[in-house]
Amino acid sequence: MPADRDCSPPETRGRTLDHAASVYDLLAPVMTLGLEGRYRRRTIELLRLVGTERVLDIGCGTGILTRQIAARLDGSCREQVIGIDAAAKMIAVARRKAAGIVNVHFKTAVAETLPFAEARFDAAASTFFYHHIDMDLKKRSLAELRRVLKPGGRAVIVDVDTPTNLLGRLCAWSGYWLFRQEEIRENIEGRLRESLYDAGFSRVEKVSHHAGHISIFYLEN
Ligand SMILES: C[S@@+](CC[C@H](N)C(=O)[O-])C[C@H]1O[C@@H](n2cnc3c(N)ncnc32)[C@H](O)[C@@H]1O
Question: Of all atoms in ligand 1, which is nearest to the CA of residue 40?
Answer without folding.
Answer: 8
